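Input (structure):
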Protein backbone atom coordinates (compact mmCIF):
# COMPACT_ATOMS: atom_id res chain seq x y z
CA UNK A 1 0.00 0.00 0.00
CA UNK A 2 1.38 3.39 -0.97
CA UNK A 3 2.43 5.53 2.00
CA UNK A 4 -0.02 8.28 1.14
CA UNK A 5 -2.98 6.01 0.41
CA UNK A 6 -5.21 5.02 3.33
CA UNK A 7 -6.54 2.12 1.24
CA UNK A 8 -5.17 -1.03 -0.41
CA UNK A 9 -4.34 -1.05 -4.12
CA UNK A 10 -5.27 -4.31 -5.80
CA UNK A 11 -5.56 -5.80 -9.27
CA UNK A 12 -7.33 -8.82 -10.69
CA UNK A 13 -6.91 -11.25 -13.56
CA UNK A 14 -10.08 -11.93 -15.54
CA UNK A 15 -11.15 -15.47 -14.70
CA UNK A 16 -14.50 -16.28 -16.29
CA UNK A 17 -14.76 -20.07 -16.70
CA UNK A 18 -17.66 -21.44 -18.77
CA UNK A 19 -16.85 -24.89 -20.11
CA UNK A 20 -20.22 -26.08 -21.46
CA UNK A 21 -20.31 -26.50 -25.26
CA UNK A 22 -23.55 -28.44 -25.80
CA UNK A 23 -24.96 -25.77 -28.13
CA UNK A 24 -21.81 -25.53 -30.22
CA UNK A 25 -20.17 -22.76 -28.22
CA UNK A 26 -16.47 -22.38 -27.60
CA UNK A 27 -15.15 -22.83 -24.08
CA UNK A 28 -14.83 -19.43 -22.41
CA UNK A 29 -11.88 -19.98 -20.09
CA UNK A 30 -10.01 -16.69 -19.80
CA UNK A 31 -6.92 -18.34 -18.30
CA UNK A 32 -6.71 -20.70 -21.29
CA UNK A 33 -7.43 -18.11 -23.98
CA UNK A 34 -4.96 -15.54 -22.61
CA UNK A 35 -2.38 -18.30 -21.87
CA UNK A 36 -2.38 -17.53 -18.15
CA UNK A 37 -2.18 -21.26 -17.40
CA UNK A 38 1.13 -21.17 -19.28
CA UNK A 39 2.45 -17.80 -18.05
CA UNK A 40 0.84 -17.61 -14.60
CA UNK A 41 4.11 -17.17 -12.71
CA UNK A 42 5.36 -14.38 -14.94
CA UNK A 43 1.94 -12.70 -14.70
CA UNK A 44 2.02 -12.82 -10.90
CA UNK A 45 5.60 -11.53 -10.91
CA UNK A 46 4.34 -8.55 -12.92
CA UNK A 47 1.60 -7.95 -10.38
CA UNK A 48 4.10 -7.92 -7.53
CA UNK A 49 6.35 -5.57 -9.49
CA UNK A 50 3.43 -3.17 -9.94
CA UNK A 51 3.26 -2.52 -6.21
CA UNK A 52 -0.22 -4.00 -5.77
CA UNK A 53 -0.55 -5.78 -2.43
CA UNK A 54 -3.75 -7.73 -3.13
CA UNK A 55 -5.05 -9.61 -6.15
CA UNK A 56 -8.47 -10.97 -7.00
CA UNK A 57 -7.62 -14.42 -8.28
CA UNK A 58 -9.95 -17.11 -9.58
CA UNK A 59 -9.70 -20.87 -9.38
CA UNK A 60 -11.37 -22.93 -12.14
CA UNK A 61 -13.95 -25.12 -10.40
CA UNK A 62 -14.77 -26.93 -13.65
CA UNK A 63 -11.14 -28.05 -14.00
CA UNK A 64 -10.64 -28.87 -10.34
CA UNK A 65 -13.74 -31.02 -9.82
CA UNK A 66 -13.89 -32.85 -13.12
CA UNK A 67 -16.15 -35.54 -11.67
CA UNK A 68 -18.45 -35.30 -8.69
CA UNK A 69 -16.54 -35.22 -5.42
CA UNK A 70 -13.13 -35.83 -7.02
CA UNK A 71 -10.72 -32.89 -6.86
CA UNK A 72 -7.58 -32.30 -8.93
CA UNK A 73 -5.49 -29.62 -7.24
CA UNK A 74 -2.33 -30.11 -9.34
CA UNK A 75 -2.36 -26.69 -11.02
CA UNK A 76 -3.84 -24.83 -8.06
CA UNK A 77 -1.16 -26.28 -5.75
CA UNK A 78 1.54 -24.53 -7.76
CA UNK A 79 -0.19 -21.16 -7.74
CA UNK A 80 -1.06 -21.29 -4.05
CA UNK A 81 2.54 -22.27 -3.25
CA UNK A 82 3.58 -19.09 -5.06
CA UNK A 83 1.29 -17.02 -2.83
CA UNK A 84 2.68 -18.85 0.18
CA UNK A 85 6.23 -17.85 -0.84
CA UNK A 86 5.28 -14.25 -1.64
CA UNK A 87 3.21 -13.12 1.33
CA UNK A 88 3.48 -9.49 0.23
CA UNK A 89 0.80 -10.27 -2.39
CA UNK A 90 -2.44 -11.41 -0.74
CA UNK A 91 -4.93 -13.29 -2.94
CA UNK A 92 -8.67 -12.79 -2.64
CA UNK A 93 -9.79 -16.14 -3.99
CA UNK A 94 -12.67 -16.01 -6.46
CA UNK A 95 -14.21 -19.40 -5.76
CA UNK A 96 -17.02 -18.89 -8.26
CA UNK A 97 -16.62 -16.66 -11.31
CA UNK A 98 -19.65 -17.72 -13.34
CA UNK A 99 -19.15 -21.29 -14.65
CA UNK A 100 -20.04 -24.65 -13.06
CA UNK A 101 -18.48 -28.12 -13.54
CA UNK A 102 -19.45 -30.05 -16.64
CA UNK A 103 -20.92 -32.96 -14.64
CA UNK A 104 -23.43 -30.69 -12.84
CA UNK A 105 -26.67 -31.22 -14.76
CA UNK A 106 -28.70 -28.03 -15.29
CA UNK A 107 -25.81 -26.03 -13.86
CA UNK A 108 -27.00 -23.43 -11.33
CA UNK A 109 -30.56 -24.80 -11.42
CA UNK A 110 -29.50 -28.21 -10.15
CA UNK A 111 -31.34 -28.62 -6.85
CA UNK A 112 -28.06 -29.55 -5.14
CA UNK A 113 -26.01 -26.67 -6.56
CA UNK A 114 -25.82 -24.76 -3.24
CA UNK A 115 -24.51 -27.87 -1.45
CA UNK A 116 -22.09 -28.75 -4.25
CA UNK A 117 -20.50 -25.30 -4.42
CA UNK A 118 -20.18 -25.17 -0.63
CA UNK A 119 -18.48 -28.59 -0.59
CA UNK A 120 -15.97 -27.40 -3.20
CA UNK A 121 -15.30 -24.21 -1.22
CA UNK A 122 -14.72 -26.22 1.94
CA UNK A 123 -12.29 -28.54 0.15
CA UNK A 124 -10.33 -25.53 -1.09
CA UNK A 125 -10.17 -23.93 2.35
CA UNK A 126 -9.13 -27.16 4.04
CA UNK A 127 -6.26 -27.58 1.58
CA UNK A 128 -4.98 -23.99 1.58
CA UNK A 129 -5.89 -22.66 5.01
CA UNK A 130 -3.07 -20.44 6.23
CA UNK A 131 -2.10 -19.13 2.79
CA UNK A 132 -5.06 -16.78 2.50
CA UNK A 133 -8.15 -15.92 4.49
CA UNK A 134 -9.78 -13.70 1.85
CA UNK A 135 -12.54 -15.12 -0.33
CA UNK A 136 -15.19 -14.03 -2.78
CA UNK A 137 -17.88 -16.71 -2.45
CA UNK A 138 -19.41 -15.81 -5.81
CA UNK A 139 -18.54 -13.00 -8.19
CA UNK A 140 -21.31 -10.69 -9.42
CA UNK A 141 -24.52 -12.59 -8.64
CA UNK A 142 -26.51 -9.90 -10.46
CA UNK A 143 -24.66 -10.31 -13.76
CA UNK A 144 -24.63 -14.08 -13.31
CA UNK A 145 -28.41 -14.06 -12.94
CA UNK A 146 -28.75 -11.74 -15.93
CA UNK A 147 -26.64 -13.84 -18.30
CA UNK A 148 -27.78 -17.28 -17.11
CA UNK A 149 -31.33 -16.53 -16.05
CA UNK A 150 -32.61 -13.44 -17.89
CA UNK A 151 -30.98 -13.22 -21.32
CA UNK A 152 -30.41 -16.97 -21.71
CA UNK A 153 -26.86 -16.39 -22.96
CA UNK A 154 -25.11 -18.83 -20.61
CA UNK A 155 -26.19 -22.17 -19.10
CA UNK A 156 -28.79 -23.06 -17.96
CA UNK A 157 -30.22 -20.65 -20.56
CA UNK A 158 -33.28 -19.40 -18.67
CA UNK A 159 -34.96 -16.22 -19.85
CA UNK A 160 -37.00 -13.36 -18.42
CA UNK A 161 -37.38 -11.95 -14.94
CA UNK A 162 -38.66 -15.27 -13.60
CA UNK A 163 -35.41 -16.84 -14.75
CA UNK A 164 -33.50 -14.02 -13.09
CA UNK A 165 -35.33 -14.67 -9.82
CA UNK A 166 -34.76 -18.42 -9.98
CA UNK A 167 -31.04 -17.96 -10.59
CA UNK A 168 -30.65 -15.34 -7.88
CA UNK A 169 -32.29 -17.62 -5.32
CA UNK A 170 -29.95 -20.49 -6.15
CA UNK A 171 -26.85 -18.26 -6.20
CA UNK A 172 -27.62 -16.60 -2.87
CA UNK A 173 -28.28 -19.92 -1.14
CA UNK A 174 -24.95 -21.10 -2.50
CA UNK A 175 -23.25 -17.98 -1.15
CA UNK A 176 -24.63 -18.53 2.34
CA UNK A 177 -23.66 -22.21 2.47
CA UNK A 178 -20.23 -21.37 1.07
CA UNK A 179 -19.65 -18.78 3.79
CA UNK A 180 -20.82 -21.19 6.48
CA UNK A 181 -18.39 -23.87 5.28
CA UNK A 182 -15.48 -21.45 4.93
CA UNK A 183 -16.01 -20.02 8.40
CA UNK A 184 -16.13 -23.53 9.86
CA UNK A 185 -12.72 -24.30 8.38
CA UNK A 186 -11.24 -20.84 9.03
CA UNK A 187 -13.13 -18.74 11.58
CA UNK A 188 -10.94 -15.77 10.62
CA UNK A 189 -11.88 -15.97 6.93
CA UNK A 190 -12.83 -12.60 5.44
CA UNK A 191 -15.61 -12.54 2.87
CA UNK A 192 -15.40 -9.95 0.11
CA UNK A 193 -18.94 -10.02 -1.28
CA UNK A 194 -18.43 -8.77 -4.83
CA UNK A 195 -21.38 -7.46 -6.79
CA UNK A 196 -21.80 -5.63 -10.09
CA UNK A 197 -22.80 -2.17 -8.96
CA UNK A 198 -25.80 -0.60 -10.61
CA UNK A 199 -27.36 2.83 -10.64
CA UNK A 200 -30.62 3.30 -12.49
CA UNK A 201 -31.97 6.50 -14.00
CA UNK A 202 -35.36 7.08 -15.61
CA UNK A 203 -35.75 7.69 -19.34
CA UNK A 204 -38.39 10.26 -18.39
CA UNK A 205 -40.64 11.10 -15.45
CA UNK A 206 -43.17 8.41 -16.34
CA UNK A 207 -40.64 5.74 -15.34
CA UNK A 208 -39.68 7.18 -11.95
CA UNK A 209 -41.60 4.58 -9.93
CA UNK A 210 -40.09 1.71 -11.92
CA UNK A 211 -36.64 3.26 -11.56
CA UNK A 212 -37.07 3.50 -7.79
CA UNK A 213 -37.89 -0.22 -7.72
CA UNK A 214 -34.80 -1.10 -9.73
CA UNK A 215 -32.65 0.95 -7.41
CA UNK A 216 -33.83 -1.48 -4.72
CA UNK A 217 -33.44 -4.61 -6.87
CA UNK A 218 -29.76 -3.75 -7.38
CA UNK A 219 -29.22 -4.60 -3.69
CA UNK A 220 -31.05 -7.93 -3.86
CA UNK A 221 -28.06 -10.21 -3.18
CA UNK A 222 -26.89 -8.24 -0.15
CA UNK A 223 -30.45 -8.05 1.20
CA UNK A 224 -31.15 -11.75 0.72
CA UNK A 225 -27.97 -13.12 2.29
CA UNK A 226 -28.52 -10.93 5.35
CA UNK A 227 -32.09 -12.20 5.70
CA UNK A 228 -33.52 -8.70 5.34
CA UNK A 229 -36.34 -9.34 2.88
CA UNK A 230 -39.36 -9.80 5.11
CA UNK A 231 -42.78 -8.14 5.23
CA UNK A 232 -42.59 -4.35 4.77
CA UNK A 233 -39.31 -4.66 2.87
CA UNK A 234 -39.43 -2.80 -0.49
CA UNK A 235 -38.61 -6.05 -2.36
CA UNK A 236 -40.95 -8.35 -0.44
CA UNK A 237 -43.74 -8.37 -3.02
CA UNK A 238 -41.32 -8.37 -5.95
CA UNK A 239 -39.44 -11.50 -4.86
CA UNK A 240 -42.69 -13.36 -4.11
CA UNK A 241 -43.85 -12.46 -7.63
CA UNK A 242 -40.60 -13.82 -9.11
CA UNK A 243 -40.48 -17.38 -7.86
CA UNK A 244 -39.30 -16.89 -4.29
CA UNK A 245 -41.51 -18.59 -1.69
CA UNK A 246 -42.31 -17.65 1.89
CA UNK A 247 -40.25 -20.68 2.90
CA UNK A 248 -37.29 -19.28 0.93
CA UNK A 249 -37.49 -16.02 2.85
CA UNK A 250 -37.73 -17.91 6.14
CA UNK A 251 -34.62 -19.89 5.15
CA UNK A 252 -32.67 -16.68 4.50
CA UNK A 253 -33.74 -15.28 7.86
CA UNK A 254 -32.70 -18.49 9.63
CA UNK A 255 -29.35 -18.71 7.83
CA UNK A 256 -28.48 -15.03 7.52
CA UNK A 257 -24.84 -14.02 7.37
CA UNK A 258 -23.12 -10.78 8.26
CA UNK A 259 -21.13 -8.89 5.65
CA UNK A 260 -17.39 -8.48 6.13
CA UNK A 261 -16.50 -6.33 3.11
CA UNK A 262 -18.84 -4.95 0.44
CA UNK A 263 -17.22 -5.36 -2.97
CA UNK A 264 -18.27 -2.86 -5.65
CA UNK A 265 -17.58 -3.54 -9.33
CA UNK A 266 -17.99 -0.26 -11.20
CA UNK A 267 -17.38 0.30 -14.90
CA UNK A 268 -18.26 3.73 -16.34
CA UNK A 269 -19.38 2.05 -19.56
CA UNK A 270 -21.70 -0.52 -17.94
CA UNK A 271 -22.85 0.46 -14.45
CA UNK A 272 -25.26 3.33 -15.17
CA UNK A 273 -28.49 2.01 -16.67
CA UNK A 274 -31.68 3.56 -18.04
CA UNK A 275 -35.17 2.39 -17.15
CA UNK A 276 -37.53 3.02 -20.03
CA UNK A 277 -40.16 1.28 -22.10
CA UNK A 278 -37.97 -1.69 -23.03
CA UNK A 279 -37.53 -2.63 -19.36
CA UNK A 280 -40.72 -1.44 -17.71
CA UNK A 281 -43.07 -2.73 -20.39
CA UNK A 282 -41.16 -5.37 -22.34
CA UNK A 283 -39.03 -6.92 -19.59
CA UNK A 284 -35.72 -6.37 -21.35
CA UNK A 285 -32.43 -5.88 -19.52
CA UNK A 286 -31.87 -2.13 -18.99
CA UNK A 287 -29.49 -0.49 -21.42
CA UNK A 288 -26.24 0.98 -20.19
CA UNK A 289 -25.18 4.58 -20.72
CA UNK A 290 -21.90 6.27 -19.89
CA UNK A 291 -21.40 6.88 -16.20
CA UNK A 292 -18.92 8.97 -14.26
CA UNK A 293 -16.70 8.84 -11.21
CA UNK A 294 -19.45 10.68 -9.36
CA UNK A 295 -21.84 7.81 -10.10
CA UNK A 296 -19.33 5.41 -8.58
CA UNK A 297 -19.11 7.58 -5.47
CA UNK A 298 -22.93 7.70 -5.25
CA UNK A 299 -23.11 3.90 -5.38
CA UNK A 300 -20.39 3.49 -2.75
CA UNK A 301 -22.06 6.07 -0.53
CA UNK A 302 -25.45 4.33 -0.81
CA UNK A 303 -23.92 0.98 0.13
CA UNK A 304 -21.90 2.38 3.02
CA UNK A 305 -24.87 4.23 4.46
CA UNK A 306 -27.04 1.13 4.12
CA UNK A 307 -24.66 -1.50 5.53
CA UNK A 308 -22.00 0.40 7.49
CA UNK A 309 -19.36 -2.04 6.25
CA UNK A 310 -16.00 -1.36 4.53
CA UNK A 311 -16.32 -0.65 0.81
CA UNK A 312 -13.86 -2.28 -1.59
CA UNK A 313 -13.86 -1.16 -5.24
CA UNK A 314 -13.24 -4.72 -6.40
CA UNK A 315 -13.32 -4.00 -10.13
CA UNK A 316 -12.99 -0.91 -12.23
CA UNK A 317 -11.30 0.04 -15.51
CA UNK A 318 -12.12 1.33 -18.97
CA UNK A 319 -12.44 -0.64 -22.21
CA UNK A 320 -10.76 1.64 -24.71
CA UNK A 321 -7.52 3.25 -25.77
CA UNK A 322 -4.55 3.51 -23.45
CA UNK A 323 -5.22 7.25 -23.20
CA UNK A 324 -8.80 6.59 -22.09
CA UNK A 325 -7.56 4.11 -19.48
CA UNK A 326 -5.07 6.63 -18.11
CA UNK A 327 -7.83 9.24 -17.96
CA UNK A 328 -10.11 6.86 -16.02
CA UNK A 329 -7.27 5.98 -13.65
CA UNK A 330 -6.84 9.68 -12.86
CA UNK A 331 -10.60 9.94 -12.21
CA UNK A 332 -10.43 6.84 -10.03
CA UNK A 333 -7.62 8.27 -7.91
CA UNK A 334 -9.52 11.51 -7.36
CA UNK A 335 -12.75 9.65 -6.58
CA UNK A 336 -10.99 7.37 -4.08
CA UNK A 337 -9.63 10.35 -2.17
CA UNK A 338 -13.07 11.96 -2.21
CA UNK A 339 -14.71 8.81 -0.81
CA UNK A 340 -12.10 8.51 1.90
CA UNK A 341 -12.30 12.19 2.86
CA UNK A 342 -16.09 12.02 2.92
CA UNK A 343 -15.93 9.34 5.59
CA UNK A 344 -16.73 6.28 3.49
CA UNK A 345 -14.61 3.45 4.90
CA UNK A 346 -12.70 2.57 1.73
CA UNK A 347 -10.86 -0.72 2.18
CA UNK A 348 -9.26 -0.90 -1.27
CA UNK A 349 -9.34 -0.08 -4.97
CA UNK A 350 -8.87 -2.67 -7.72
CA UNK A 351 -7.90 -2.21 -11.35
CA UNK A 352 -9.55 -5.11 -13.13
CA UNK A 353 -8.41 -6.75 -15.29
CA UNK A 354 -4.66 -6.39 -14.90
CA UNK A 355 -4.19 -7.86 -18.41
CA UNK A 356 -6.38 -7.30 -21.43
CA UNK A 357 -8.98 -10.04 -21.88
CA UNK A 358 -11.15 -11.60 -24.54
CA UNK A 359 -14.69 -10.27 -24.51
CA UNK A 360 -17.44 -12.71 -23.57
CA UNK A 361 -19.04 -12.90 -27.08
CA UNK A 362 -15.92 -14.94 -28.02
CA UNK A 363 -17.92 -17.92 -26.81
CA UNK A 364 -20.36 -17.78 -29.74
CA UNK A 365 -19.21 -15.31 -32.40
CA UNK A 366 -16.51 -17.42 -34.07
CA UNK A 367 -14.16 -14.44 -34.34
CA UNK A 368 -10.44 -14.55 -33.64
CA UNK A 369 -8.62 -13.76 -30.42
CA UNK A 370 -7.56 -10.37 -31.79
CA UNK A 371 -11.09 -9.52 -32.94
CA UNK A 372 -12.45 -10.33 -29.48
CA UNK A 373 -9.79 -8.47 -27.52
CA UNK A 374 -11.19 -6.15 -24.84
CA UNK A 375 -8.58 -3.54 -23.97
CA UNK A 376 -9.07 -2.93 -20.26
CA UNK A 377 -5.62 -3.84 -19.00
CA UNK A 378 -2.56 -2.22 -17.52
CA UNK A 379 -0.77 -4.72 -19.73
CA UNK A 380 -1.75 -5.05 -23.37
CA UNK A 381 -1.98 -8.50 -24.96
CA UNK A 382 -0.35 -8.98 -28.36
CA UNK A 383 -0.68 -12.22 -30.31
CA UNK A 384 2.51 -13.13 -32.17
CA UNK A 385 2.70 -15.13 -35.44
CA UNK A 386 3.62 -18.28 -33.51
CA UNK A 387 0.45 -17.96 -31.42
CA UNK A 388 2.19 -16.81 -28.25
CA UNK A 389 0.41 -13.98 -26.48
CA UNK A 390 2.86 -11.38 -25.22
CA UNK A 391 2.20 -9.03 -22.30
CA UNK A 392 3.31 -5.44 -22.82
CA UNK A 393 3.06 -2.83 -20.08
CA UNK A 394 1.25 0.24 -21.39
CA UNK A 395 1.00 3.86 -20.23
CA UNK A 396 -1.87 3.00 -17.87
CA UNK A 397 0.38 0.41 -16.26
CA UNK A 398 3.15 2.98 -15.91
CA UNK A 399 0.77 5.49 -14.33
CA UNK A 400 -0.60 2.83 -11.96
CA UNK A 401 2.89 1.96 -10.74
CA UNK A 402 3.79 5.63 -10.38
CA UNK A 403 0.75 6.18 -8.16
CA UNK A 404 1.58 3.18 -5.99
CA UNK A 405 5.14 4.37 -5.46
CA UNK A 406 3.87 7.56 -3.79
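Output (sequence):
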Amino acid sequence: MGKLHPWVWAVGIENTFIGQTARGERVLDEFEITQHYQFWEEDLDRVRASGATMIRYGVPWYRIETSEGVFDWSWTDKVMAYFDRHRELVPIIDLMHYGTPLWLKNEFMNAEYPQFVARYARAFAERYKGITSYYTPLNEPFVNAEWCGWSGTWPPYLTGLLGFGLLMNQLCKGIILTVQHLKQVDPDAVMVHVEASKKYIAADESYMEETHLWNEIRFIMWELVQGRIQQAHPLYTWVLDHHFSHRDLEWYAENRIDLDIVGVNYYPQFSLNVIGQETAEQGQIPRAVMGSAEDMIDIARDLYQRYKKPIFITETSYNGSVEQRVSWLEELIRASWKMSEEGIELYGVTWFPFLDMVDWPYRTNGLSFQENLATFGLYSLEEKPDGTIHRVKNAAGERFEEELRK
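Notes: The longest strand covers residues 190-196. DSSP finds 16 helices and 17 strands in the chain.
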